Each structure stands twice: as structure tokens, then as C-alpha cells.
Amino acid sequence: MAVDKPTQQALTVATGIPGIDEVLESGNLAMVVPPEDPDAIAEAITGLLEDPDRIKKLGDAARDHVFEFHTASGMVDRVERLYMQALNI
Q: How far apart, in whole angstroms, are the C-alpha atoms of residue 65 and residue 8?
């Protein structure tokens, strides 16, 4: 992951190995490129650097995802909802 200093957004480019596409929500949180394809990785990074709006969109979506699903309070909220569903409350 690289960071674009002017926008302070992470430029996430990942290879599409099994499981990654699901984790990154089919490219909604990062650019996903074919594995073992350095040209595709370079093209994705270059494309992001040339498109500040896309950087912001992906960065905002990734940040929101982390805060919703990967913080202690987010995990507690999800577990609580799960218990409420299980107990039909």
C-alpha cells in the first residue's frame, strides 16, 4: 500500500488471489489486479495517481469499512445484533 501525500489517502492495490476479492468487496475498497502481473499492478497504481477522485472514493470506503467492521465497538455491535437475532429480540 502506498500513500498519496497530497490527499493522505492510501492507494491500495491488491492481487486477486483467492479470498482477497471478497475481503475487498470486489474492488470497492481497493484496486484488484491479476496475480503475478507486475504490469497490471503498475498500471493500477499509475491510474490511481492520475485520478484523485478515485483515490478519495476508495480511501473513504476503506476507512469507513475499517471503522464499521474492524474496531472494538464495531465488532461488539455486530455480536450484539447477532445475539438479538438469535434470541428474537
A: 17
Rounded to two decimals, what is the model's pTM?
Answer: 0.66
Look at residue 3 and tell me whether its pLDDT is greater than 80: no
CA gap 60, 42 in Å, rounded? 22
What is the pLDDT, as a whole number, of residue 4? 46
Domain spans, the chain: 2-63
The tally of CA atoms less than 13 A away on the side-chain side of residue 15 is 10
Computed from CA positions of residues 81, 85, 86, 89, in that sequence, does the dihedral angle turn out positive or negative? positive
Q: Which amino acid is at 11?
A: L
Question: What residues have CB less than 8 Å from 45, skipping those under 6 apart?
Answer: 2, 11, 13
Query: What is the rounded distance in angstroms from the CA atom of residue 9 to the CA atom of residue 30?
Result: 11
Q: Are 15 and 41 in contact (CB under 8 A)?
A: yes
